[in-house]
Design brief:
By secondary structure, the protein is α+β, with helices and mostly antiparallel strands. Helix content is about 35%, strand content about 20%. The model has no long low-confidence stretch (mean pLDDT about 95).
């Protein structure tokens, strides 16, 4: 199990199985959960091991409605009665878990039962479709349409790669304050006009998205932090439409 997690490849393999349940389910089946770890929602959200970036993105935890999380070793689910398995499955479907394959839970045991082609197809079904736009600049064309091997690299890091051309930055999971300070260190100031080498940040009360302008029309972009979101070149008009509920701020380098 651990070797696949350490490989440089996209995988849905987890350290443990996670099952997201409601308070009603918890009370109904407490007697079947006596010897397993069940974590309340607020504690799970702060748990750096169970709620890792890999687990968070594979399950898409941000879109799940739940009150508790059952955390168990591989094989626990498959050892339960068929009736209880169905109850757990329905909970995951109703909650909105992403780790489901045609009404089959993608548990550690299920994932390991698949061959490499089946795993690849299962991963690729969620791949974001992006514009087929080429860039004349090799810095961006090299990564255009490339999916990262792991979850984490996000829009702020992609924008700062445009600024720095440092590939190490490209692979970071960058938060908004780190992004803001890095803009400042690179002498970026707020402006009005969009031009080449600008960074554009979409905001509400905080920065929610950012992209790097290659020229006045096209940008280097990453739509999200998952490995289903590739780095890509696209039109600023497309990005603006995707983020139309937010206002944007333009930053340019002050020489």
């Amino acid at each position: 199990m651990q070797s696949e997690l350490n490989e440089v490849t996209r995988t849905l393999l987890q350290e443990r199985d996670l099952f997201f349940i409601s308070d009603e389910f918890y009370k109904k089946f407490t007697y079947l959960l006596l010897d397993v770890v069940v974590i309340p929602k607020e504690e799970f959200k702060k748990h750096h091991i169970y709620n890792s970036i890999h687990a968070n993105c594979c399950y898409e935890v941000w879109g799940i409605e739940y009150d508790f999380v059952i955390v168990v070793q591989a094989g626990w689910y498959e050892k339960q009665s068929l009736n209880f398995q169905k109850e757990v499955l329905h909970q995951q479907i109703n909650a909105g878990s992403n780790m489901i394959d045609n009404h089959q839970l993608i548990t550690v045991q299920y994932w390991q039962s698949l061959d490499s082609d089946e795993k690849t197809k299962l991963i690729q079904r969620y791949d974001e479709e992006v514009d087929q736009v080429s860039s004349l600049e090799q810095y961006f064309e090299k990564w255009n349409g490339v999916f990262p091997d792991y979850h984490g690299p996000n829009c702020f890091a992609a924008a700062m790669y445009g600024v720095t051309k440092n590939e190490q930055v490209l692979h970071e999971w960058m938060h908004q304050e780190t992004f803001k300070y890095m803009l400042e260190r690179n002498n970026y100031i707020q402006t009005e006009e969009i031009e080449a080498d600008c960074v554009i940040a979409f905001c509400d009360d905080r920065f929610q998205h950012a992209c790097y302008m290659i020229d006045e029309q096209y940008a280097f972009n990453k739509s999200g932090q998952t490995f289903w979101n590739p780095w890509h070149v696209t039109s600023f008009e497309k990005i603006r439409n995707d983020w139309q509920d937010y206002h944007y701020i333009v930053f340019k380098r002050h020489n």
